[in-house]
Design brief:
With about 180 residues, the protein is an alpha/beta fold. It has six helices and seven strands, in the order H-E-E-E-H-H-E-H-H-E-E-H-E. A hairpin with a 4-residue loop joins strand 5 and strand 6. It is globular, with a radius of gyration of 16 Å. It starts with 12 loop residues before the first helix and ends with a strand.
């Protein structure tokens, strides 16, 4: 009997779609020029665009919606570092305004496939709490990670944190409300 190949599920795709719908027309973080939104690409991050405030945002998405949830907390560090090895005409053109970020869900898992019941905020913050603040902040400086975006599909909002502020449990620096 032939073995059936398991299809790989992209747990980040719904998160990326939701994020782009909510953020698209925002005055500060909205999409001025789309480079890549959710297309699997060796030359781009999961989300890559020029914002309305002229930052070139390079955002890696991770979700706790899979049975691999606990590994996603660690994989993000390697993926952020890999972004520095990628080059494109857009990245060269906007090299002085590049800002890296992480996109994670804010809500509790809804797929039924996750091995956690925590909200995305609690899941990722708890996972990073064992990393000393100096080390976490130092990685952010080294890799030029500026933002953590928490997207709520439930409330249709995006909370924007600084990299270090997310680790310290500070309030978001910016809130993107539901579209009017």
């Amino acid at each position: 009997m032939a073995e059936t190949k398991r299809e790989k599920v992209n747990h980040e795709a719904p998160l990326i779609r939701c994020f782009s719908e909510i953020i698209r027309s925002n005055a500060r973080f909205g999409i001025k020029k789309e480079i890549n939104i959710g297309n699997d690409s060796a030359s781009c991050s999961d989300v890559e665009y020029v914002s309305n405030s002229n930052e070139y945002l390079i955002i890696e998405a991770k979700s706790h919606e899979s049975k691999d949830a606990y590994n996603t907390r660690h994989k993000i560090f390697g993926q952020l570092l890999k972004e520095h090895g990628k080059s494109s005409a857009d990245r060269k053109e906007h090299s002085s305004s590049i800002a890296l970020g992480v996109l994670i869900p804010k809500d509790i898992p809804s797929s039924g496939k996750s091995n956690t019941k925590k909200s995305g905020y609690d899941f990722y913050r708890d996972g990073y709490s064992d990393i000393p603040q100096e080390l976490f902040s130092g990685f952010g400086e080294l890799a030029k990670v500026k933002y953590v975006f928490l997207c709520s599909a439930e409330n249709k909002t995006v909370d924007v944190y600084t990299w270090g502020g997310f680790h310290r449990g500070e309030k978001p620096i910016y809130l993107v409300p539901p579209s009017a």
